[in-house]
Design goal:
single chain; 141 residues; mainly alpha; Globin-like; 0% strand
Length: 141
């Protein structure tokens, strides 16, 4: 028996916990908060770097709870952000990472990109990667 009685909510909570665990493994951390902030900051930077249609296409493939994190605070005006190099992409991440000093944005992005590559369709990943600067694509294996 589920605690909420709503299967969709139980499923998305389970999926979100799986994503956080996978990101922890990829980042080599035992800190769930660090993995959550990595996910949040990377998704926000990615979303803001994509054209609106592509941001929506990516969002459609995320589990419901993670999709909510993804769209939190989203303002599609003036998108995509002008992050042309990985340092500018990491600067987009730093506004969310500021809550946990010491989290390396590149390590966070690598971990999240790895999990996205396993959980999102190959075609969507290809579309997203093609919209990113070359040095950001290089850290996405």
């Amino acid at each position: 028996m589920t605690t909420t009685g709503i299967d969709g909510l139980e499923r998305t909570i389970h999926q979100t916990n799986e994503w956080i665990k996978d990101i922890m493994d990829e980042m080599g951390t035992q800190d769930r908060n660090e993995a959550y902030l990595a996910l949040n900051s990377t998704l926000h930077a990615l979303r803001d770097r994509l054209v609106v249609d592509e941001a929506v296409d990516l969002g459609a493939q995320l589990p419901m709870l993670i999709r909510g994190l993804y769209y939190e605070g989203y303002d599609p005006s003036n998108k995509p952000a002008k992050a042309r190099h990985k340092d500018e992409f990491f600067a987009l991440m730093k506004r969310d990472l500021a809550r946990t000093p010491g989290v390396d944005p590149e390590r966070a992005a690598r971990g999240v990109f790895s999990v996205l590559g396993k959980k999102i369709s190959k075609g969507e990943i290809k579309d997203v990667k093609n919209m990113l600067p070359g040095d950001v694509r290089e850290i996405w294996h």
